[in-house]
Design a protein that fits this description.
Layout lengths: L5 E4 L5 E5 L19 E7 L5 E5 L4 E5 L2 E4 L4 E3 L1 E4 L9 E7 L4 E3 L14 E3 L10 E3 L10 E7 L3 E4 L7 E4 L6 E5 L2 E2 L3 E10 L7 E4 L4 E8 L5 E10 L8 E7 L5 E7 L2 E2 L3 E2 L4 E4 L3 E9 L5 E6 L2 E4 L2 E5 L2 E9 L5 E8 L2 E11 H4 L4 H11 L1
Parallel strand pairs: 2-3, 6-15, 17-24, 26-33
Antiparallel strand pairs: 1-2, 3-4, 5-8, 7-12, 9-10, 9-13, 11-12, 13-14, 16-18, 18-21, 19-22, 20-21, 22-23, 25-27, 26-27, 27-31, 28-29, 28-32, 30-31, 32-33
InterPro entries: Ig-like_dom, Ig-like_dom_sf, Ig-like_fold
Protein name: Myelin-associated glycoprotein
Organism: Takifugu flavidus (sansaifugu)
């Protein structure tokens, strides 16, 4: 306080300090800290006007949130508090109590209610002002309310009864959110995102995907002690994946599972089947071109530099069959073209001359032409 003598007294209200120095002085009031939200001390100085000094609370609650917890999983109650910085090593004792002042956590196990033995753990470091508590596994009876109490040797002690936390017990986790980014194209990298919220960051949910690929998992806090677990899958779809479901399964601490699915609509350019063929008989040359694509294809043929539309065309689901019939000629190769909104393809077909192989067997040739036509 300075070299000169001073005296102080604290009447109930207002709180005042009087001393006799005329010059500015530093007043040490640590022993007078209270647990009020704000303390205003009126200071009277000889030959100076009255001044008002604001003192921070000795220990101040910062963050204790309402919680949601999944039965059978775990819950972490985020908690932090404040106290004056000190150069001395401080000894802390932290504890958590229920609404009837029974201990659900204490560093001395024998002081804890038996129903909470081996289920509560102080995750935070009190010296770092962290009082977070984990309850694992969570039971129906763990609804609370609970509050934190701290005792700092030779400094202060306080129970945060005005900062209680209750746990909203849920029997089922919140729904899964599953989305696919952009269009799914054959043999191109695609990303799918699956995320859930949970209350157990020490044992987060496990993701399982129905499709092979590389998975990246992230965990981020949101609010009220809840966390978001996000799994991103990068994969390449094939045309066989079209109209199949991509599934994301989530397994929570405690064993509960959830699943979400999204239908894959795979976009792929036409692919011309190697069963496509051309045959030339005595009168007609017939070509059959079979194209498969995610959207209907237009099948055409290139004959002696000319592009010809199909004489007949049939579509079934993803398959388009184009048929060309032209008068027999000296054709060795005919090109098949397939175009769709997803792309294009072409294939050169060798013409099989049946009349050369079946010379003198008109009956067999006629039957073959009839089958093709």
């Amino acid at each position: 306080m300075g070299n000169s003598a001073s005296s102080a007294f604290i009447p109930p209200a207002p709180r005042r300090v009087f001393w006799t120095r005329q010059e500015e002085d530093i007043i040490q009031l640590e022993d007078m800290l209270t647990n009020c939200d704000e303390d205003f001390w009126i200071i009277t100085v000889k030959k100076l006007s009255m001044k008002k000094l604001h003192l921070p609370q000795g220990i101040q609650y910062i963050n204790l949130a309402a919680q949601q917890g999944l039965n059978g999983s775990c819950v972490v109650i985020p908690c932090s508090f404040d106290f004056p910085d000190s150069k001395n090593d401080l000894k802390f004792t932290g504890m958590w109590k229920d609404g009837s002042d029974q201990l659900i956590y204490h560093s001395v196990k024998s002081k804890i209610m038996q129903t909470y033995w081996n289920r509560t753990e102080l995750l935070g470091n009190l010296a770092h002002k962290n009082c977070s508590l984990k309850i694992d596994p969570l039971k129906d009876s763990d609804g609370g309310p609970f509050h934190f109490r701290v005792e700092i040797d030779k400094l202060d002690k306080f129970s945060y009864k005005d900062n209680k936390v209750s746990i909203l017990m849920i029997s089922e986790p919140d729904p899964i959110s599953l989305s696919i980014k952009g269009q799914v194209r054959k043999d191109r990298s695609t990303s799918a995102v699956c995320f859930v919220t949970h209350s157990c960051p020490t044992s987060p949910p496990v993701f399982t995907w129905s499709h092979a690929g590389s998975q990246k998992v992230q965990h981020t806090p949101v609010k009220d002690g809840q966390w978001k677990a996000i799994s991103t899958l990068r994969f390449q779809a094939t045309k066989e994946d079209n109209n199949k479901h991509l599934r994301c399964r989530v397994t929570y601490k405690g064993g509960q599972q959830q699943e979400a699915a999204s239908l894959l609509e795979v976009i792929f350019a036409p692919e011309i089947s190697n069963t496509s063929h051309c045959t030339s008989g005595a009168k007609l040359t017939t070509c059959v071109c079979i194209a498969e694509s995610s959207s209907p294809s237009r099948v055409q043929f290139v004959l002696s530099g000319r592009i010809l539309d199909s004489t007949d065309m049939k579509t079934h689901d993803r398959v388009t069959i184009g048929i060309l019939r032209v008068q027999q000629g000296p054709y060795e190769f005919i090109h098949c073209l397939a175009n769709s909104t997803a792309g294009r393809a072409n294939l050169t077909l060798s013409v099989i001359h049946l009349h050369k192989k079946c010379r003198g067997k008109k009956t067999g040739l006629t039957e073959m032409e009839d089958r093709v036509s």
